[in-house]
């Protein structure tokens, strides 16, 4: 059985008492103002990019893997009319997401709840994972879950750090040797890759530290 390399994984950093704190965890910054600037610059760009590259339509069911408080789901529903299921390990993030998105076209589930719905036959037309896989304890399990949830041939949009940022006790982050991009290549077919857009980067370092890729689930 595969065992996670980070045995002291601590997801408590994602449990936030307020939505304001959750926003700063979702898009980090050296100051609260920097976090808000990222929110204002990145959200409309990636909303439009995700809709375009995934070809999202009103009749689509879309999986938001690692939805946080529904930052992107809210905008994607607004501009496409699709249905979105947000999945997150954090109870508080899912709770905030229901209030933030505030749409009948949105629901929030835990990974266990998603697994159950997939076993019952639920499948999605497309999925996206934005700044998520870099934080997962054992990404092969998450990629197995996403692959099982997608229809054959369905697209997956990934925005991820080139480094791993794994939460450990003391509100600290640790890297490990897991190569997210290599794992994605084992699970999905790469369609396209492109650099993080300079016009929305909050700092020059962000351009080289993050990358965007479009994949497709193998039939």
Describe the 3D structure:
- The protein has 219 residues and is of the alpha/beta class.
- It contains eight helices and nine strands.
- Helix 2 crosses helix 3 (71-80) and helix 6 packs parallel to helix 7.
- It is globular, with a radius of gyration of 16 Å.
- The model has no long low-confidence stretch (mean pLDDT 94).
Which shape, going by the Cα principal axes? globular
Within the largest sheet, what's the order of strands? 3-2-1-4-5-9-8
Overall number of strands? 9
Total count of helical runs of at least 4 residues? 8
**Which runs of at least 5 residues are low in confidence (pLDDT < 50)?**
none
Could you tell me how far the N terminus lies from the C terminus, measured between alpha carbons in angstroms?
Answer: 26 Å
The string of secondary-structure elements, in order, is HHEHEHEHEHEEEHEHE
What is the residue-mean pLDDT, rounded to a whole number? 94
Helical content, roughly?
25-40%
> What is Rg?
16 Å
Largest sheet: 7 strands, mixed
Give the structural class.
alpha/beta
- Report strand %: 15-25%
């Amino acid at each position: 059985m595969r065992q996670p390399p980070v045995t002291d994984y601590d997801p408590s950093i994602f449990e936030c008492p307020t939505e304001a704190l959750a926003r700063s965890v979702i898009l980090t910054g050296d100051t609260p103002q920097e976090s808000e600037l990222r929110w204002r610059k990145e959200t409309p760009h990636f909303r439009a990019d995700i809709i375009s590259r995934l070809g999202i339509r009103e009749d689509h069911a879309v999986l938001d893997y690692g939805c946080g408080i529904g930052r992107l789901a809210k905008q994607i529903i607004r501009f496409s009319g699709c249905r979105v299921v947000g999945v997150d390990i954090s109870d508080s993030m899912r709770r905030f997401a229901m209030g933030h998105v505030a749409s009948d076209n949105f629901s929030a589930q835990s990974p266990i709840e998603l697994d159950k719905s997939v076993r019952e036959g639920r499948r999605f037309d497309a999925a996206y994972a934005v700044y998520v896989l870099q934080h997962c304890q054992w990404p092969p399990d998450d990629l197995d879950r996403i692959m099982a949830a997608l229809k054959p041939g369905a697209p997956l949009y990934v925005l991820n750090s080139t480094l791993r940022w794994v939460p450990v006790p003391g509100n600290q982050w640790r890297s490990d040797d897991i190569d997210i991009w290599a794992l994605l290549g084992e699970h999905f077919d790469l369609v396209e890759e492109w650099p993080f857009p300079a016009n929305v980067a909050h700092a020059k370092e962000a351009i080289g530290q993050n990358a965007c890729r479009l994949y497709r689930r193998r039939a």
